[in-house]
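Two entries, shown back to back:
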Amino acid sequence: MMFRTQSFLQKNPVLRNKEYLTFIFIRFGLSFALTMQFTIVAYWIYHITGGSKLALGFIGLAEVVPVICFSLFSGYLVDLKEKRNLLSAVVSCYVVIGLGLFYLTTSYAASHLPKSWVIGLIYFFIFLGGILRTFLGPTAFSLIGLILPRQQYANGVSWSSMAWQIGTVSGPLTGGTLIAASGIETGMAVVLITEMIMLALVFRIAKKPVMKTTREPVLQSIGEGVKFILKTPELLGAQLLDMFSVLFGGAVALLPAVQAEFFPQTEAFFSGARAFGFLRAAPGIGALLSLMMIAFFPLRTHPGKKLFIAVAGFGISIIVFGLSRNFYLSFFILILSGIFDAVSVVIRSTILQLVTPDDMRGRIASVNTMFISSSNELGDFESGVMANWLGTSRAIVVGGCLTLGVVITTFFYNPKLKNFQFRGQE
């Protein structure tokens, strides 16, 4: 047993770093709280608006506007600021948002505020969360690069992604269960408490040196980050591939409609809010399984080709999910989509860590946030509009087909990404 433990730690040296362990626990806690919050808000909005699919799309729109507006500027600030204190400020603001959403779930708010105000305030808090997201991603990305030595980046990204995915599994499952058992108020209370605990843990991480000390004009500094990505084909290709696959494959945004149309409230165990919670958690379960395999069998060879296979598998999974009317098949297919998505995330994140200079991490990560976060939220909006126009099932299938089109196009037009290798970059 001792030999197996030592062998495991030799393969995963980052687990000997106590500060890194604190960091990934914070990653887990924030993922747990924020995905539970998203699950509750999506279910809440869908039902408070009388089953409006367009209202689900507006959740994404409310978050994508600040992401597009603030992402580049946030990266400029992240590069100039101390990362631990910046993370504590971001988490503190998440606590304030959690408190506001919790208030809106209470009977006091329901009796004193008109429904239109409640809906408007929910979207307002989502908008504020979008601003925070532009700081959270670059700050966490920069922090992991300061906690770990360069040769441990790939291993660190895998475990960090696994911690995040454990949260994305347990958050929706807990949220769906709490909605079914106690209502949305209890769920939001758990979100708030979790965020407060994570805030306390942030201060167990030591302050880090600021790698960039010279202040350049804002636009010039931001432009350097954009130029670096544009002149690095493997990085640009990975970003575009992920952005468009997420943009077109946003089936998760329509899960409240999928649950209501295909798995309504019945006597069956997997129905109603519980079915929604399990379906929302399924991609995270798949991602977790995938990341556990990657931890034991790292992606060392042909990462570029594996990235294309993973995104193609994700697109096919979305198509099958759109055609399914069986809960167990839908659940399994969403698990598969999570498996493929996790592989692409690990490869893309490792490429990002390896090719980014230390003094540009905040700006490059902010561009990454704009690519990925905007595509997530724009994908939610696009899915809501498409579902309102074509119907839920057709919208999901069309999105999966478009994802496959993106994979084929990128495969033939970006040979550097296709042939990218981790060796030689470390």
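entry 2 starts here
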Amino acid sequence: ITLVKIFSYTNSPSFFILSLGALCTTSIGAAFVWMTPLMLTLTGPESPVPMTSSDSSWLASIIELGAMFATIPTGLLADRFGRKSVLLFAGPLVLTSWILTLATRSIEVLYIVRICQGFSLCTAYVLVPIYIAEISEPRIRGLLSGQFQTFFYLGTLYAYSTGPYLNYNTYILSLAVVPVLFMVTFAMMPESPYYLLMSGQTERARHSLCWLRCSCDVDKEFNMIKANVQEDMSMKADWRDLIATKTDRKALLIVLLVSAIKYMSGKAAISMYITQTLAEDAEGMLAYNTITIIQAVMLTITSFVAAFLSDVIGRKPLLIGSSFAAGIFNAIIALYFYLENQTTVDVSSYSWVLTGSLICFCIVGDLGLGTLAHTIQAEYFASRTRSIGGAFTQLVSSMLGFISIKMYQVVEDDVGVYFNYFIFSCILIAGSIFFSFVFLETSGRDLTQIQREMA
């Protein structure tokens, strides 16, 4: 990709709208990991909210339960009131969670906070990919959809960079700024033309498309979208439509497996526990807080670059390569922890292997699997099942994310931390084999063409 092409892409109206809409994702990224830089403090004697390691484990994982409970309402509400309208609701939810966090020193109220943040997490994960897919041109859809993960990592970087250096109240106040910016700016953006056509608002849909393309010469694209929506809406969608035809079943299976591999690869658990892990094992290197910031910076850059690569070399090669490489790095981490904790081998002088492998795992995983899971979700489902399919996928993903985060500590206590990474490695390598034989390439194809090829 040339710099000229990148510049032309990032100066499109769709990219501008993405940047504003993805502030929601940034606020969710910060909310997801806000405890991570404080994990040692929260479980220590000077914690602003006294808690045990078991309490912190529940706080880390319960956000996924909140997301799981919100999946079905989110999909239904998006089809009833619109993608933009429901997405805007995530802002007040996150803001409310920060107000509650400031007002309490109770672990029970923090559980409620994490559930509220889970509702917002679900809204963003279900609707941002759908909204982006429906407003973008086919040539840059992968780029725009991939930036969903980039903005999520900007949120984690923000939390990692401020948490260790601000007092508790100031830190929470700084996190509350992002959802306010999102609510103010995104309120002025257009609704998805797909949704407007689905709800019979033809003129508003045309106006929205003209705004998005900076041109009123959109007849060809508008008629194609209209025909696609009419075809998909000829039958009223419900949950049974996810398995109504062979194409629907194939789309659901592939999307669910991609999401399952992503969430069971250990990424969420590692994001939650990386500070604790590095604090215990990265002796003699940079301060562990510095390492987590470096990791977040590299993840943000990697995710941004991966979004461009997905439209150049394709989704399939990235998925296969990133899953296999991430599996190898997880295997190295598993071996390191096994030697350290289960044998008498002294690995203290090789702590750089652990740090390097953790960072490399996160980077190569995000070159494909981390970035593309949401893109694939938005591309594979037909327009009539896109909201329902996204909601169901998020339901399964949240359940698996909760299991992954919660069981990480349980497995570490009962078997050994090495076994977590052994499981992650096996899942990723099996996933790379699955992608080789089953996955359908979608790069450069419009949403209608993808459905035809799936059939």
